[in-house]
Write a structure and sequence with these properties.
The chain is mainly alpha-helical. Helices cover 86% and strands 0% of the residues. Helix 2 runs antiparallel to helix 3. The longest helix has 29 residues. It is extended and about 50 Å long. It starts with a helix and ends with a helix. 0% of the residues are buried.
């Protein structure tokens, strides 16, 4: 396992999730009176693991058909479109 890759992916995903709707939804579930914090943690963690697994499988599959550089371009363009749309809506 490449420690540099582990650190890069961890930091990127961690920073992307901070302030995200996922964090806010988890915060709200944990704040509910009578909520089991361990249940909220396990459910939210499982959901993040499942969505990450889907991303890994999709990325690996697409890289068999497309050059990874083009996937990076598409992801970058997608983030710019989402950012522009968010600014426009604000």
């Amino acid at each position: 396992m490449d420690p540099k890759l582990v650190a890069t992916v961890f930091i990127a995903v961690f920073l992307a999730e901070l302030g995200d709707k996922t964090l806010l939804a988890t915060l709200l579930f944990a704040a509910r009176e009578g909520s089991s914090l361990i249940t909220v943690f396990v459910a939210a963690s499982s959901a993040l693991v499942a969505s990450t697994a889907l991303g890994v499988v999709a990325g690996a599959t697409l890289s068999n058909y497309l050059e990874p550089r083009y996937l990076s371009y598409a992801a970058g363009a997608g983030f710019m479109v989402i950012g522009a749309w968010t600014i426009w809506q604000a």
